[in-house]
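Open question from group meeting: does this chain pack into something compact, or does most of it stay loose? Before anyone orders reagents, we agreed to write out a predicted structure and look at it together. Recording both the input and the output here so the notebook holds the full record.
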Amino acid sequence: MSALEPTRAETWMPDPHMLRVELSKITDYLLNLDHAEGHGKAKFFRAVGFSEEATDEMVEAFRHHAANNKIVQIVEHPYGVKTIVECFMETPAGTPYCIRSVWNDHLDGKPPKLVTAVPIQPK
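Structure tokens returned:
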């Protein structure tokens, strides 16, 4: 695995409107209070207004986040390329929060998909 600094051309996520955000990633992980690893994330995302009743809103928030924040790291690994995007994401509560979203490109010709997201302190 190697970590790369994004080049000038790689500073922004290409075609963010095409990014894949699987419904199960939202409902079974990022909003699931019973998930062993994701319950803290679920508490945060629910507290800022995201819910299972409006999953489309969360999908678009992640795409918008990737479109409007710079890539901070690119990591090549055996399963493709992981791209990390950081900082402000709009929320239904009306307050933007600094979020780290992680996207994986499996190099299969499909757009990258959301792997995880977590609130962070801005740098």
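Observations to bring back to the group:
The CA atoms of residues 87 and 98 lie 4 Å apart.
Residues 55-68 form the longest helix (14 residues).
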